[in-house]
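Recall the central idea of this unit: under ordinary conditions, the amino acid sequence of a chain determines the structure it adopts. In this exercise we apply that idea directly, starting from the sequence alone.
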Amino acid sequence: MVSIDGTIVATALHTLTHELHTSLTWSTWTITVYQLGQIVSLPIAGRLSDSLGRRRMFLAYVTVFTLASLLAGFATSIYVLIALRFAQALGGGGLMPSTMGVVADLFTRDRDRWLGLVTSFFPVGALLGPTLGGFIVTYSTWRAIFFINVPVGAVVLLLLLLLLPPARAVRVRIDLPGAGLLGAALLTVMFGLNQFADRGVRSPLPWSLLAGGALLVAAFLRHERRAEQAILPPALLRRPAFAVVNGINIVYGAAAFGVFTLVPTYAQLAYGLTPLAAGSLLSVRAIGMAGLSVTSSMLLRRVGYRAPMVLGFLILAAGLLLISLPPATGPFTWLGISALVCGIGVGIAGPPSNNAAVQLMPDQVAAISGLRAMFRQTGGIIAITLSAVAVGSGPGEAQALSRVFLVFAILTVLLVPLIFRVPERSAA
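Accordingly, the structure predicted from this sequence is:
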């Protein structure tokens, strides 16, 4: 449910803009606010499960996600839908850490095998989400995108009540103020950028919001240096390699996952593709990712981190460049080839980017993995928000999106020299 909902809405942005009488700038918030909600919930979800009991919190997360999905299907305003998507993400963001915790508790023997099995289901959602969303929007209503979660959530709740044994709760300190400051900072910056499209660069409101966001970021970093259970451990903040690796992860998230969610919208606006055809482009990318990520993972011990990262980023840039260019064949074929190229690039660059972050502090794999996801989600939020601003202030939506893909292709290439500062596999 969670991985599908991360991509399923991308195919409905054009429809949401029309039926809720809003702009594409506001429609894209249904994606960015979902990522924001997960950023807020991911760092604290695991600790909440440890503190209050996995069964209790698992039930709570599923309930929040399912109820928010039901209400989102009845939304009559883009602002109400955005708020409900945030609530949906708060529940959904807690499910991944809770799942890992439950599996780790129940399967003490061959734990790694069972964790790998459960994790393997999440890419299936990313693969099915866009096509499922396109099918629903084409043959039904966008509201069914959210209603479809309700019966699934009800079944999951029933199974959890019947099958999941109660877990012993322990007292764990949780950095709730840190999560709140981080969420407030990102939300303020997002809203400030959004106001540039609505009010223009001469309005004092967006500049004031950006200044407020900067102050909240400073307050968050100051708090993290003093917090006992910080979301960003101070030991990592003091390491230059951490800044390099996660700076790369921000751009990686922006180019690989953020701006690419707008490809279905671009396909509908520029070439008149149906939501089903447009959504399948994300599935094509997922196929490329899945095929190359396994190969890339197997080669890391031989070639290290830097070489596949450089190759992957350059291929990703080539795919984004192809999207921005006029098609040399039929639009669907051209965009399909471009999406596949992007997926190959992401598949090659993904595993070394993951392991380069983890190796900085191997004794804190869980914390590093959560931070890596948080930085990538942050990059995705920034990319979608900036893209929406560019579309809202540009001469034409399709033309503006084409330029956005070109800009991110260039940024991805410019990032390559920074990769050579990533510690290699043999580094401590």
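The chain has a mean pLDDT of 81.
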